[in-house]
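COMPLEX REQUEST
Ligand: pyridoxal-5'-phosphate
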Amino acid sequence: MGDRPNGSLFSLLEGSSDLPLHLPAHGRGRALAPQLRRLLGRPAASWDLPELPALGGPLEPQGAVAEAQAACATLLGARHCWFGVNGASGLLQAALLGLAPPGSRVLLPRNLHRSLLHACVLGQLEPLLFDLPFDPRTGLWLPPSPAHLERVLAAAAPLQPVAAVLVDPTYQGFGSELGALVELLHGCGAGLPVLVDQAHGDGAALAAGADLVVLSLQKAAGGLAQTAALLAQGDRFDRRAVERSLLWLQTSSPSALLLASAAAAIAHGHSSAGRRQRQQAVGRALRLRKRLAGLGFEIAAGDDPLRLVLATAPLGINGLEADAWLLEHGVIAELPEPGALTFCLGLEPPRGLEKQLPRRLVELRQALGAAALPPFEPPPLPLLARPELGVGEAWRAPAEAVPLAESTGRIAAEPLCPYPPGIPLLIPGERIDAARAAWLERQRSRWPGQIADTVAVVANDRREQ
Ligand SMILES: Cc1ncc(COP(=O)(O)O)c(C=O)c1O
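STATUS: Structure written out below.
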């Protein structure tokens, strides 16, 4: 370490890589909103200001931040907009706590981001997890159809959830018939308020009728990491409850730079320069897709052209192994999964992408390709699952590690959650049945290095089956 204890941290930030195809979507600054780029060019950190009266903060009624939030709400068609500096994670938690009082039940999709699970702990909420359609070819969860959601709602009705969450689009860029899904949720029981996790989206969920929408502005817009926005409309939520939760979960010193970045990313995305930038990126992405298809690669048909989902299973390659090989050869992908590898092309894809990526993928196929992997088995999950023990109670309980093979009948004490994508395969409080234990055991070989051979279970659980 010597006199430079942060040597490798700084050299990594200062260095460059051949083909960065990961988030943030601004591509190491290339696609930053011009206003933000100008700000960052000023004398170092001169913009690092506290909540001065003229600036205010996300919960202040007056000041420049309040004005910028109001302007962004108008641009996006929302009634309210709050910026966040702890990512979509922080705002999803505040939004869910704002919708559901302690002890209530919330309807969450199986592909929920782990931050929502954490919200259940913080807010003492009971998650009702609904299963999702599954693609055996890629091993990916798919968005629910309206008919699927209707079945879920029929199963959930006796449990009287007070709010529902949808993820749209998914990390891989798959969209749903969101308007129809929201309508079903609004029409169910007393009318469920709907929070849409649009971490990977652009706010279009508002037009589909969502009550609360969370955007991660580094993922589909050109903001810095940690920047996010919570949008709201209609009267199915209590504004005071949402603002109270924001107060509980946000820092008391939000970074003025990140708040400015949130404002700039939204404004730029809606400007003619921002739209042009996106169009050009999409044009390049579509040409790249065509070229890869011509070379015999299978690219999943998603709804976001800037997310390139390579199906690695048909090549006989696990996505995590493909990722490790590509990393060694200068290509940094965003999201490796057992049957697929997702590249985020960003709002200004790297120069030379159209030549370099196809070349590297051909080399990858030559190096690791084999007979196609067998179809992925869908997880053996009920349409609607309830943890037997409260998530927070199970997570805090004395725990012991048992081999996965011996976990049948025990209650999980920790989530089993490969990261990325940060989607739990098992949540604390769920009782593990034999089919689930066997499935989890098989997932170990699919997620090399990501799933331990033991699982944490609640100790002294006398109700073992
Ligand atoms: C679907 C989804 N929601 C929320 C998040 C959290 O976003 P952030 O990193 O901005 O906290 C992620 C992160 O990957 C995500 O994939």
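REMARKS: The mean pLDDT is 95. The chain has 14 helices and 17 strands.
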